[in-house]
Each structure stands twice: as structure tokens, then as C-alpha cells.
Amino acid sequence: MTMKPYYITTPIYYINAAPHIGHAYTTIAADVLARWQRSRGREAFMLTGTDEHGQKIEDAAKAAGKHTIDFCDATSALFRDLWKHLDVRHDDYIRTTEKRHEDKVQELFALLLKNGDVYKGKYEGLYDVVSESFVKESDAIKSPKGILLGPDSGKPLQTLSEETYFFKLSKYGPALLEHYKANPGFLAPSHRASEILRFVEGGLEDISVSRTKVKWGVPVPGDPDHTVYVWFDALINYWSAAAGTTLWPADVHIVGKEIFRFHAVIWPAMLMAAGLPLPKKVFAHGWWTVEGKKMSKSAGNFVDPYEITLEFGVDAFRYFLLREMPFGNDGDFSKASLTKRYNAELANDLGNLVSRVSEMVDKFLGGKLPVKPELTPDFRTTAVARRTPDIAAKMEALDFSGALDIIWEVVRDLNALVNEKAPWKLAKTDMKACELVLFDLVCSLRLVGGWLDPFMPATAAKIQMQLGVRHFPDLLTAEDVLAGKKEHPGPILKGPVLFPRKI
Ligand code: MSP
């Protein structure tokens, strides 16, 4: 039996404003994971897209003086263009205003109506338009003036009183707890998983899943005065995009910590109610602040990915986001820390190593390596190749910074090897030894290039080209190098500087 593709998703983004680094972070992480799976020979399928219904979008379109769908088309395109610019290779891009999705929302809603898990009632309570969520009075924050504010958004809440359909979330508490217990890897990282556990153990209430006051949404089947609540609609995207394929269930949903509950509680309960298999993992990453402050409209400190990549390049941006903080933790973005890592790790450690090695092979060996030199016991590539499973284990656990730590340990070891063996001296005294050490360095660096490919695809391609691997993406695996395959398919030439230093 062939394995189904590794199916990975990002949240679908609200299109009331242009994308910023927060959106780029999740999407790049998903792309890196998908590329990693592909590089190991597993077919991967990456889904991203945009969340286009609901009051917030309706209001934003109105404020922009546009027809809602025209507004959606324009802003959704901004996200799609950014992914292209950031070298994100998604396999599908779903928009909740597409018919293929709306049909599936209605199908699922009708199914739950039929089996009694969705029923009609009345909602009287608070609503937060910014996070598009119903808020319990006990969770609301009171402003000094006595106004009730959303706990996440800090913005004034609306008071709703409308007829609504409810989803029997309360019924699924015990089944959810059982599922968490039986599948310890289902929710990650563990500190966030325990918050969810405590929340569900505290008892779940049924939730409202339709609105009568919001027109911009999917009509409830058989009751067009209601539209489906935007979160109920949005979560279904992961399943509707998989229609007619073998993709479902998803292997991993990557989400930000603020929307973990929707994905760890409501979505699995919806799937249980529909008798559908559950995703294998939901991973909640942390949040970026900028120069120590939360990004917000009022602070005007949204970081524009175009601005950063214009200055530092796409690959350095991708690298920094995944290197700076462990996936799952919060972290801070600043140009100072980006510049520091860029100069130290990319320009110095990596860039210099590649240029020194290719330059020496060019200069001392005329760009050609020995076909199969006799290896000595201290041949470094053998040990370097043994790091591949360690890196793979980190990647499987979505520990991107951990994987990069290992890669940089190797890069630093190789720099130390260059200094220790001093091939420029050997070139004068012992040509055989010089050939061997350069052969060793090139083979090891080809492995490094392969490991880096998911993180920095363009840089990895440049490294491999300089090291004589002409048919990119025909990257070398550890096994290839050790089996003596494709040792030096083309001449080794020094190329342009990979990361020019920043001052
Ligand atoms: N539309 C919902 C998601 C529905 S999924 C079925 C939504 N959209 S959003 O546009 O607000 O994007 C949320 C996602 O953007 C977060 O989950 C997170 O992945 C990312 N981020 C937004 N700001 C962020 C930071 N400051 N830092 C890191 N990521 C953040 O919620």
C-alpha cells in the first residue's frame, strides 16, 4: 500500500489587513516541514489559504468602500503573492468563499443537524468581533469606564441577543479527554496541551454556530436567515480542501497559540460528531513581539516581510524566524538581532566556509576532486552523515531551532577542520593529504546543503552548484555520499558571496 501524502496545514488567514511577520512565521514553518518531508522521499501536501467570511471582513470591506467579494479578492491575493515571494511551495490555496468549500460546510452542518448535534436555540451574551468569538461574561475584562472588553483583543464587546443554532460541544468533553490521553502526541507542545486539558476537564458548554445578523457567510442549509458562524465555517477548510483525495486526516495543523482552543477542542469535537477521523497532531507555536512590544494597529509596529527581505534576502528571513526561538515559545523580533545572526551565522560561519572550500578546490585542484581517494579513519563525512537521523528526529518533532543547532554545530566543526588541517599549507607539502581533506570538506558540505534545503532553498541550491552538484534539486543524501555515488558531478567553482556582510 502506498503511503498517503503527509498533509500539513496553516491557519487560513483573515484578510481584513495585509500579511505581517506573524502570518509569515506559521506559513514558512509549514513550508519547511513540507519540504523536509519531500527531501526524505515522502510526498507532502501543504495547504494554506484565507478566511473570508464574517462580520470583521464585512466591516473592513465597507470601510474600504468596496464590494465584499472584490475586497476579498484583492486582499487574499496579497497573501498569495507574499507566499510566492517567500518561496513557499503550497500545494493548494483555499478561500472560504469558494464553492468547493461552501458546499462542504453545508454538507457537514446538515449532517450534524440531522444527527441532533446541532439544534436551534437563543444566544444571549457577548461577542468579540476582533477574534470573532463568543465571550463568557466571566472572561470579559472591565475597562475603568465599566465597558466590557475582549480578553484577547482588549476591544469593546458587542451584546448579542439572537436566535441561533448550537453545537453540542458539551457532549464531547469525555471523548476528547479520552482522545488526549490515548494520543499523547496529539496536542503539542506539552505545556500548551496541559492548558487545554484543564480547560476541557473544567466542563464544556454548547457553542453558538450561526448568526442571523451577519449576512456575509455560508447560509445554514434549510434556514437561510442564518449564516454559519465564521469559525465553524473556517475550521472545515482543512477537510473541504481534502475532498476527493486520500489526504484526510491531516498529519499536522500548525496554528498560533491564540487559536489553539478552536483547533484542539472545537474542531476535533466537530469531527467526532461527523464520524470523521481526527488530525494526527495540532501544534501551537508562540508569538512574536517587535522590539519588545505586541504588534498592533495602534502601535503601528507591524513588520512588513517585504521590507525585511528587501534588506536581508528571503532566505535569511526564513532562517531567522525558525532559528531565533524554539517553535512553541514566544520571542522578539528586532533588526538588531536579525543583523547579528545574519553576520555571525550566515555570513561568517556558513558563507565563509562555502567560499573558502570552493575557492581552495578551484585553486589547488583545478576545480576537480579525486575520484575515490583512499579514506583515512578520521574522514569527517562519515561522522557528519550520522547526524542526519538526529536532525530528522528534531524535524519530526517540529523542533526547527533544534535541527538548526545541530547543523550549525557541524558547520562550526567544519570551519575548525579547515583551520586545523590548513589545506593551503598541505598544498605545498603533501598534495595527497590536501586532496583528501578537501574531498572530505566538499562531501560534508554537500550534506549540509541538503539539510539546509528546506530552510533556505535558494541558498542550498547555490551551495550545491558551487560544490559541483549541477542538477538541482538532485541533492545528495548521506547515503549517496557514503556509497560514493554522484561524488563530484561537475566542476567546483567559487560563486558569488552567499551573504554579504551587513554593517
Ligand atoms: N482566521 C483565523 C484562523 C482560522 S483557521 C481555521 C485567524 N486568522 S489570523 O489572520 O488572525 O491569523 C492567525 C495566525 O497568524 C495565528 O494563528 C498565527 O499563526 C499567526 N500570527 C498572527 N500574529 C502573530 C504573531 N505576532 N506572532 C506569531 N504568529 C502570529 O486567526
Labels describing this entry:
17 strands, 19 helices, alpha/beta, binds 5'-O-[(L-methionyl)-sulphamoyl]adenosine, 4-stranded antiparallel beta sheet, 6-stranded parallel beta sheet
Q: How does this structure look, described?
A:
This protein has 503 residues and is of the alpha/beta class. The protein has a domain at 335-483: Isoleucyl-tRNA Synthetase, Domain 1. The chain has 19 helices and 17 strands. It has a six-stranded parallel beta sheet with strand order 3-2-1-14-15-9, sandwiched between helices. Strands 5-4-8-10 form a four-stranded antiparallel beta sheet. β6 and β7 (148-149) form a beta hairpin. The mean pLDDT is 93. The structure holds 5'-O-[(L-methionyl)-sulphamoyl]adenosine.
Please tally the β strands and state the result. Answer: 17
* Name given to the CATH homologous superfamily of the domain at 335-483: Isoleucyl-tRNA Synthetase, Domain 1
What's the pLDDT, averaged over the residues?
A: 93
Number of helices: 19
CATH class of the domain at 335-483: Mainly Alpha
Shape: elongated
Q: Identify low-pLDDT runs.
A: none
Could you say which structural class the secondary elements and strand pairing correspond to?
Answer: alpha/beta
CATH architecture of the domain at 335-483: Orthogonal Bundle
Bound molecules: 5'-O-[(L-methionyl)-sulphamoyl]adenosine
Any idea of the CATH topology of the domain at 335-483? Isoleucyl-tRNA Synthetase, Domain 1
What is the first-to-last residue Cα distance? 55 Å
